[in-house]
Design brief:
The complex is a heterodimer of chains A (283) and B (300).
Chain A lengths: L8 E8 L2 E8 L7 E6 L3 H6 L1 H13 L2 E6 L16 H18 L6 E6 L1 H9 L7 E6 L5 H18 L7 H10 L4 E3 L2 E3 L1 H9 L11 E7 L7 H12 L5 E6 L13 H14 L7
Parallel strand pairs in A: 3-4, 3-5, 5-6, 6-9, 9-10
Antiparallel strand pairs in A: 1-2, 2-4, 7-8
Helix pairs in contact in A: 2-9, 5-7
Chain B lengths: L10 E10 L2 E10 L8 E6 L12 H11 L4 E4 L18 H15 L3 E7 L1 H13 L4 E7 L6 H17 L2 H8 L4 H17 L2 H7 L3 H11 L4 E6 L3 H12 L12 E6 L9 H25 L1
Parallel strand pairs in B: 3-4, 3-5, 5-6, 6-7, 7-8
Antiparallel strand pairs in B: 1-2, 2-4
Helix pairs in contact in B: 3-8, 4-6, 4-9
Classes of the chains: A alpha/beta (283), B alpha/beta (300).
Chain lengths: 283, 300
């Protein structure tokens, strides 16, 4: 066993109602340029993208950003079961995480909410709860939460169909069960109505006052942005927060069977964030 | 640490940074509630496949808490290059130093004299190979869930047995074949697989003087402690493991050794995603561990 170099990241638990939340703080290196709160994707998408989130967090820390990763209630290493989670409890967790990031600095640097997939939906809702402005950095934002819920519920139906059950009405039955206040089991996760309802209603809501917004999409082929996101981007433009859309070549790492990296996304993300916080012109 | 940590928690959790050849590995240690007697066995959870320390649908997060609540400290961690750990990505044949780091941390931080290594899929294979390589006396027992023994020959054999023969019995397959559809391709695949299956696994292993499956077999045979084998009924990896143990001379008789307790989980998939199978597996594991701990107590 050799001795370890000074740790580049500090894992810790944040005390919260219903237990504790697992967090990692990545300390900024060199001149501090900003604070970044990472909001992870949903369920297996979070697992599959853990590596990319770590690599990006380290790249940002090396570029001068303080990064905080938090596992939401019932996710990753945090307390509780996935079935204990609700949309509002997750927003509460994120509010507490932003307060932590504000208290631990670096002070007087801009805040960015960096969301991945369903984390983008949470970020856009979180913004209204914060008492400071924040830029929005999105990785593969979905147009609306109901698409993600649909995809998640389909995992259950795919399992049933493989066993010869689950007909065309099965999606309706699942939604009915959730509507009646029942928790349903989906691919090893317990999904509570309090989460499903919040997710289904979630929108990629534009900020009330104009904020910088950087949206990244990853595609194995360098093709045009998906129309769903284009429509959301139009809404943001109309509301005064025109997002900068970037398409980067790489695997859909949050869905691939094996763990895959998208180095071009990391490079582009770091460069884009740095370009937003250039040193002011000397007086 | 709050008293209301989670729904199932009679346990306390700590984040650890383990040290492995200069890299920092992230681990989470779940400890029994403070008032319990000092534990005699810890469980090192080695996470296999493309998963970080939480596991598919958080199976290892929840398992570690159940183990701790039952009095067994449990540590799960990311290999170098996986999840939040530093270093370059590597495959399961190259993680012996990572398992060493896990054992050392679990022993030091939980104060347990000896450990059980538990692994799913290729982590079960890694656990056997770790023992085969290190003969580490700290390892008291091995708990192996759906061990990975895939080779080109075993994959072909299992596909012939469990997939193509099923398809040949389906009316739809023959209709497609008659129409010249995709079934023609499937038939070519079957013939190719049958050729490969017939070549067997022995030839390739003989050339290399020890395939990873043979290292696993040596570890299995020589390991002096108890072995728990959990096999899912709806899992290709488990079927291949069984086919391999029937066909590979190195595996002859190994599943019937006295030290082996085998539990078949008929309804389970690879990661035990249905709650009933998960509960059955956990109950079997706890029962086996409690027996083991009782023997340790009696011996000391």
């Amino acid at each position: 066993m050799t001795s370890t170099a000074p740790s580049p990241f500090q894992p810790f638990f944040l005390e919260r109602p219903l237990g504790q939340r697992f967090c990692i703080r990545h300390a900024p290196q060199g001149r501090p340029r900003g604070r970044v709160l990472f909001i992870h994707a949903l369920a297996e998408e979070m697992n599959k993208s853990r590596r990319m989130a770590a690599l990006q967090s380290r790249a940002l820390a090396a570029a001068g950003f303080a990064v905080l990763q938090i596992d939401l209630l019932g996710c990753g290493d945090s307390s509780g079961d996935f079935g204990d989670a609700s949309w509002s409890a997750w927003l509460d967790d994120l509010q507490a995480a932003s307060a932590w990031l504000r208290a631990h600095g670096p002070a007087a640097t801009p805040l960015w909410l960096w969301g991945h997939r369903h984390g983008c939906l949470l970020a856009s809702e979180l913004l209204a709860r914060l008492d400071e402005p924040a830029g929005l950095l999105f990785w593969q934002p979905p147009a609306a939460g109901k698409n993600l819920l649909q995809q998640f519920l389909r995992l259950k139906l795919a399992g049933q169909m493989a066993e010869g059950a689950g007909g065309s009405g099965a999606m309706g039955e699942l939604k009915q069960a959730l509507g009646a206040g029942e928790t349903v089991d989906i691919a090893g996760y317990r999904l509570a109505p309090a989460l499903a309802v919040g997710l289904e209603a979630a929108q990629l809501t534009p900020p009330a006052t104009p904020m910088p917004a950087l949206w990244f999409e990853v595609s194995p082929q360098a093709e045009a942005a998906l129309p769903v996101t284009a429509a959301a981007a139009e809404r943001w433009r109309a509301a005064g927060s025109a997002p900068t859309l970037s398409l980067v070549q790489g695997p859909a790492f949050w869905q691939t069977t094996e763990i895959e990296d998208a180095p071009a996304l990391i490079e582009a993300t770091t460069a884009a964030l740095l370009s937003q916080v250039q040193d002011p012109v000397p007086a | 640490m709050s008293a209301t940590t989670a729904t199932i928690d009679d346990c306390r959790e700590r984040a650890l940074l383990l040290s492995c050849e200069g890299e920092a590995l992230l681990g989470i240690l779940s400890l029994p509630a403070a008032e319990r007697p000092a534990p005699v066995l810890g469980v090192l959870i080695v996470v296999g496949g493309p998963q970080y320390r939480a596991g598919s649908h958080r199976q290892f997060t929840l398992l570690a808490r159940r183990l701790a609540a039952a009095g067994f400290p449990a540590l799960r961690f990311d290999y170098r290059g996986m999840g939040d750990s530093g270093g370059a990505a590597r495959d399961f044949m190259d993680v012996t130093p990572d398992i060493d780091a896990g054992l050392q941390a679990l022993q030091a931080e939980a104060g347990v004299p000896r450990c059980v290594v538990l692994g799913l899929c290729d982590a079960a294979s890694a656990a056997l190979m770790h023992w085969e390589q290190r003969r580490d006396p700290r390892v008291a027992a091995l708990a192996l869930l759906n061990p990975w023994t895939r080779s080109a020959a075993s994959l072909a054999r299992t596909q012939v047995k469990h997939y193509y023969l099923d398809r040949l019995r389906q009316r739809e397959f023959w209709l497609k074949l008659l129409r010249g559809g995709v079934a023609l391709q499937a038939l070519r695949g079957l013939l190719g697989n049958m050729r490969q299956a017939r070549q067997g696994s022995g030839a390739a292993a003989a050339v290399s003087g020890g395939s990873y499956q043979q290292r696993m077999a040596r570890g299995w045979r020589d390991f002096p402690g108890p072995l728990l084998l959990l096999l899912s009924g709806r899992d290709y990896t488990a079927k291949e493991f069984l086919d391999n143990s029937d066909n590979d001379p190195a595996w002859q008789g190994l599943l019937r050794l006295d030290k082996v307790r085998r539990v078949d989980l008929a309804e389970a998939d690879h990661t035990l995603s249905d709650p009933a199978s998960e509960q059955r597996a956990t109950a079997s594991l706890l029962d086996w561990l409690q027996n083991l701990a009782a023997k340790k107590d009696g011996a000391s």
